[in-house]
Write a sequence for this structure.
């Protein structure tokens, strides 16, 4: 029915009974798997007549809404003619820390199940009254009513929504149609759509139409960079101006939104953490009642108003919003992901994965973990006279690392056939002992190492043939790394259960490679959209010089001369991209020495957001003088940057973008060679050329843009690299 609110028992009681402070000094990180084992262990003690995991459901009319409340109780026990609801909760904390009566939210959950069962079975003797259930639902009512009314308005506005531009660009309608069909058919889609086509609006618009048609209830727009999050916000804003009613939240990294000098989530240090759960429901109700756009600025405003942590506030709002704009890791990282999205909610949730080529290395990063000897040695020294148990625990782990260091003999890097079980036992023991200490006292070093060990152990549970375990020596230190070479299986696992996933990028080429490495399946849809721009809009040149490391000093003068000649003959604003910062500085220094009068900009190492914005502001249209910006390939200015019209007249890409030869890249190469794929392409060529295509894609952003692209490397004339160039770049001139 239209006015029915579907809600799980747990969600309801957690909303009504939340209280307390955020305190990250220590919170036990026992895994869900451990909790499941404890549940099963208790359930095995049940009598034959008892039932476990019993599904219970009841409807309660409250004012103009019907609450359909359901869930699974852990146990239904029959003792001496009495029926008992058993709710099992696992905790690594000592029971004294939970108070004499345990947690109210746990009791509330058990009592809700008891009431639902008693109501269904017409039992009088179960000690839960109607008034209690009414109180819980009454407390939830304002929030439920707000969401219910908003969703009616949202769905109607989504149905009425029209494309927010007068016409579709060439390829946009095809992309929008492909996304809608994917959602309708409950499939996944891999899309290569050219830069400048308007991918954001072309994926969001059909997704919002799917909300109006009842296919989707929530959208996650996932990105790797802040600048693409802004583009998504602007796209939603444009559709709002066309009548769309949508509540959307942007999640910004904790260290960027934290109000305090240090990101220390402790109630005695941070007033925004102290009593957070006592105030959060009111804060959510306030912002949800008054704002549709819950971006960083609005979240910070309301967080200050209600004295709540802006980061945790944004996470809680993610469960309220219709659309969430955030980083990949909130869905795909097993250590960070939004855990409260239940399977039922996932079935009506769509994932739009922007600039999906970035998810390959980000996936490897999310599913990998490392530990180094130095941390244990440091803690060993700190705890020598403080705590004997911790001291002995880290001493044993430090000794294990010393023996590891000897394993690799003279090699700086060496692989291990398998993870030593002794180390896993030592780490688990350290974790258990650290928990006991951290419950009573604060130690920043111990806490940091505890979290690192806990994170490492979570990855240990994922180890399979998609991993390589290796050691790396660095002077007196040694690091052990669990390196996820192929993230496909885990990306597929973390994305399981969602209605549809759309992976899109201008440089998802070759599509078969990205479908394979991002966890695609044979039944997925593939879509490649040709560029809407004409070949005549871009002049493509190839300068066949060697940019290989051994030849860089020799060819540097020729590159400097070529750049100067280019801007002399074709004045304007240029971006010159180099494969490394060291190479960039070498050519930049030579260039300004030879041509000091030229107006140049240099990408700094570790630039702040303000410095990046200042860099891009210098690219103004119709400037009287030529401007050359020297930047790093694959860096902040080589993708997601939109310099339309005469703000950018040319791009020079020096090199084919190959990642630096290193141990990890060679491990990737060897792994895929064994799987009868081209390991060198997987490890070096595809990631490298992706950076080249991204950098070149900064140039032509609309049908009116014109400009010049120069590709500097003799390898661009080889078939292997030519096949990866876009069709519109293949009519080139060799200079």
């Amino acid at each position: 029915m239209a006015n029915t609110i579907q809600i799980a028992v747990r969600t309801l009681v957690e909303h009504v009974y939340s209280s307390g402070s955020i305190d990250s000094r220590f919170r036990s990180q026992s895994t869900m798997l451990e909790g499941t084992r404890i549940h099963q262990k208790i359930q095995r003690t049940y009598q034959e007549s008892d039932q476990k995991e019993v599904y219970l459901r009841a409807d309660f009319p409250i004012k103009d809404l019907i609450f359909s409340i359901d869930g699974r109780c852990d146990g239904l026990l029959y003792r001496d003619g009495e029926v008992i609801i058993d709710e099992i909760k696992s905790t690594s904390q000592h029971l004294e820390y939970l108070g004499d009566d345990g947690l109210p939210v746990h009791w509330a959950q058990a009592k809700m199940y008891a009431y639902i069962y008693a109501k269904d079975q017409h039992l009088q003797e179960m000690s839960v009254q109607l008034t209690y259930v009414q109180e819980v639902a009454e407390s939830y009512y304002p929030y439920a009513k707000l969401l219910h009314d908003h969703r009616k308005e949202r769905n109607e506005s989504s149905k009425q929504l029209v494309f927010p531009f007068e016409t579709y660009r060439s390829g946009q309608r095809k992309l929008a149609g492909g996304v809608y069909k994917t959602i309708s058919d409950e499939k996944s889609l891999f899309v290569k759509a050219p830069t400048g086509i308007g991918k954001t609006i072309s994926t969001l618009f059909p997704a919002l139409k799917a909300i109006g048609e009842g296919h989707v209830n929530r959208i996650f727009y996932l990105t790797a960079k802040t600048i693409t999050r802004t583009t998504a916000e602007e796209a939603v804003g444009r559709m709002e101006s066309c009548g769309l009613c949508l509540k959307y939240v942007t999640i910004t990294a904790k260290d960027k939104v934290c109000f305090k000098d240090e990101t220390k989530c402790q109630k005695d240090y941070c007033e925004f953490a102290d009593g957070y759960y006592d105030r959060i429901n009111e804060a959510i109700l306030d912002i949800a009642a008054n704002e549709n756009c819950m971006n960083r600025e609005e979240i910070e405003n309301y967080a200050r108003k209600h004295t709540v942590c802006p980061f945790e506030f944004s996470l809680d709002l993610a469960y309220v919003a219709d659309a969430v704009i955030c980083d990949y890791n909130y869905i795909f990282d097993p250590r960070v992901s939004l855990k409260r999205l239940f399977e039922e909610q996932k079935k009506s949730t769509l994932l739009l994965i922007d600039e999906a080529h970035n998810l390959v290395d980000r996936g490897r990063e999310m599913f990998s973990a490392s530990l180094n000897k130095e941390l244990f040695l440091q803690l060993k020294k700190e705890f020598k006279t403080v705590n004997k148990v911790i001291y002995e625990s880290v001493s044993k782990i430090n000794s294990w690392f010393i023996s590891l260091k000897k394993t690799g003999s003279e090699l700086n890097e060496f692989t291990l056939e398998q993870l030593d079980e002794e180390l896993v036992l030592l780490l688990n023991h350290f974790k258990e002992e650290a928990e006991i200490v951290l419950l009573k006292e604060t130690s920043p070093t111990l806490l940091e190492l505890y979290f690192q060990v806990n994170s490492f152990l979570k990855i240990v549970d994922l180890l399979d043939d998609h991993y390589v375990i290796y050691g790396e020596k660095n002077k007196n230190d040694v690091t052990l790394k669990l390196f996820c070479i192929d993230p496909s299986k885990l990306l597929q696992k973390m994305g399981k259960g969602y209605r549809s996933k759309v992976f899109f990028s201008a440089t998802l080429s070759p599509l078969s490679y990205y479908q394979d490495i991002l966890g695609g399946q044979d039944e997925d849809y593939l879509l490649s959209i040709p560029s809407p721009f004409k070949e005549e809009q871009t002049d493509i040149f190839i300068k066949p010089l060697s940019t290989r490391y051994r030849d860089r000093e020799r060819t540097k003068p020729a590159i400097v001369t070529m750049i100067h000649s280019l801007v002399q003959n074709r004045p304007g604003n240029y971006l010159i991209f180099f494969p490394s910062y060291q190479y960039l500085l070498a050519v930049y220094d030579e260039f300004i020495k030879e041509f000091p009068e030229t107006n140049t900009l240099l990408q700094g190492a570790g630039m702040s957001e303000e410095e990046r914005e200042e860099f891009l502001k210098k690219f103004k249209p119709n400037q009287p003088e030529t401007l050359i910006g020297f930047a790093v390939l694959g860096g902040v200015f080589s993708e997601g940057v939109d310099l339309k019209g005469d703000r950018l007249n040319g791009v020079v890409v020096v090199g084919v973008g190959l990642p630096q030869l290193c141990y990890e890249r060679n491990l990737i190469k060897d792994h895929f060679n064994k799987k009868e794929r081209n390991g060198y392409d997987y490890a070096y060529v595809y990631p490298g050329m992706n950076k080249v295509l991204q950098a070149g894609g900064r140039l032509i952003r609309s049908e009116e843009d014109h400009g010049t692209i120069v590709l500097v490397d003799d390898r661009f004339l080889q078939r292997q690299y030519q096949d990866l160039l876009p069709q519109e770049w293949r009519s080139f001139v060799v200079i």
